[in-house]
Amino acid sequence: MKAPRFGAHFFSLSLSSLLALALVAGCSGDPDDVDDPDAGHEVDAEADADGDGDGETPVDLGLDSLSPESGDLEGGTTVTLSGQGFVDGLTVYFGDVEATEVTRYGGLSAEAVTPAAADGIGSVDVIVENPDGTRATLSEAFTYTEEAVVDPEGTVDYCQLQPQGTVEAEAGQTFGPLLAFVFAEGVTEGSGQGAGIEAELGVGADATDLSWSELEYLGDIDGLSAGDLANDEYGLELRLNDPGDYVYLARFRAADDDDWITCGLEGPLEADPGNDDLGRIEISEPVEPSIQFCQTETDSISVEPGEETSAITGIVFAFDITPGEGQGDGIDGRILYGPHADSPSDWTDTVDADYLEDVDGLSPGDLSNDRYSATLTIADEGEYGFIFQFRLHDGDWVSCGTDESYEFNEEAVGHLEVAVAGEVIPRPENCGVQFPMIAESMQTGDEITLYGRIFEPGLTDQADLPDELLAEALIGPADANPEEDFAAFTVLSATRNPDYIGDDFEEFETTFTISEAGTHAYVYRFSLDDGDNWTYCGIDSLRTEDDIDPTRFGAIVASDDTPEPINYCHTWPEALTGDADADGPEISMEIFHDGVTNQAGAPGDSGELEVEGGFGLAGTNPALSGYHWTSLAYAGTSPGPEDNHEFEGLLYEEADAPAAGDYHAITRARLIGEETWTYCTTDQAQGDFLLDPLRATTLEVQ
């Protein structure tokens, strides 16, 4: 697998010192300010062919093996069962007695705790039964003994470094994690960490002189079959202090093994490693300190002409400068503002900001970010935009949007309305389409629940909401603008979601029955004054107050026939850089679909799959217009599970190159003949996915 995963530890290494474990302070905004896009929602079972949430086609129930094959007369032995067709509600019997506890891990694996033996010492049949009454039996498969015969912890059967290409970082900069996975029969299979596995990562200037440090268990990944969770994945974040070229390997051993098994990019090593076995790291000289992250926190504000606004705040992070108590040395902050209709690049008015306080970053108590504050006083009525800017040691100013992005987005700016009393339009500070961003597995006649969220200080953070707060969802044709063609939209009143328990936001919901096939767009709108004025709210909490942008609406894609979404896919890398005067960079996708990528004689290049890569402006919904798409070519089987196949290709050719700027990129796939696409992100999420800047590949075009 090439999808990156994040661990919590790293080690620091210089050529003249030992490895040292440490923790890294984060550099993003407060995670408590980030919405949980899945809160209060259930998986859409109708989008899953067998209703078990794993996206797989139903198969006949079968039981192939179990481990261990014996246990104590008194019961209590945890037995792992392997087979197929396991669904929620699975029942397991040892002889005629039901297991005391059953845990299912997808369609292929389950665990059951044995009951006490009904007939004393001896072998019994093991039976699995689904809720529909279908059964499968292994005859005399489990033996009750006076004392439990415990299988040994096992040995390591296979291990491999996860292919990641050459890793590049600056001296003293945290990077990674570097990844490896291990398989030990009867140990790593199924959910959770395999017991007794030791894992280490070795790094050095060459393969003969490696310094080893303990790897951290990160989770389970599939082996030969989708959903089998046969392998355990380990990883480690690193920080190397000396510039230079490094190599790395992993090694594993089980509790009963005396010797380590060393593994490289092509699997276990039986001899000295070759060039193709070694992971590689390039550490460059450190650059001058810089601002890595900043954000304009205040989203919307209003004031009368000539009056001072309330405090407008922004946060900034600079490695080794802002973390800890007190103001970071050498940082200046200011607010840049101008007419809301103009580009921020045309604004010229500024006001200096003052250091206010420290703010936590990724970890509670790390005080990684510094918060700054300023006010504005504007004499003329009108609509104004504003952003924070920060600089370090009198260097260039760095602009900060309101969207928590590491790259400035001209669409994500604060909004200031200057108007006389009585003419100020009440608008919420934050609102947005919450779920789904894209509902891609719908069929005509299905009912779908649409969610939206709103935040207004002093209102949504109270137990009771005023009657003047109204919420509606508008559903209409893709690319239609309700401001220009309101009659084209169906208007549905939304009510407070009683199951939502979260921060100071309030969540609303409404249901809609899909009557026509095709792509439908939907948007939430909220009123704070009993419907006199409405604020339209797009995806990703981006407000479309004045210029409604239909490309930022949520999308519902429905077909007349039962859709067949792709079982699994993910996109990499996480970041790309392109040139406005040349062919674009390559983007890649890994995909699994049962009956296509895992069937002999029918690989991913058989013509049964259509795969594309696309890019568009940040915050734009890829299921609506605004994305440029190009076909991706079959690139072979995955270096991990062979049932997974890879596709790759250029995001664009020179003739289609976009203007310089910042974009998001993802991939999508569908079976030939299917009407709807499955959209694939960098974190392996797909199917009715939540469009999140952290889940899309960033594309910087220069």
What does this structure look like?
The protein has 702 residues and is mainly β. The chain has no helices and 52 strands. The strands form 9 sheets. Strands 23, 24, 25, 26, 27, 28, 29, 30 and 31 form a 9-stranded mixed β-sheet that branches. Strands 13, 15, 16, 19, 20, 21 and 22 form a 7-stranded mixed β-sheet that branches. A hairpin with a 6-residue loop joins strand 15 and strand 16. The chain is globular. The N terminus is likely disordered.
Distance, first to last CA: 30 Å
| Helix content percent band | under 10%
Q: Please report which band the strand proportion falls in: under 5%, 5-15%, 15-25%, 25-35%, 35-45% or over 45%.
A: 35-45%
Cα gyration radius (Å): 28 Å
The average pLDDT is: 83
What profile does the largest beta sheet have? 9 strands, mixed
Q: What form results from the Cα inertia axes?
A: globular
Number of helices: 0
Number of strands: 52
Structural class: mainly beta
Stretches where pLDDT is under 50 for at least 5 consecutive residues are: 1-56, 148-153, 687-691
Features:
single chain, 702 residues, mainly beta, 9-stranded mixed beta sheet, 7-stranded mixed beta sheet, 52 strands, 44% strand, disordered N terminus
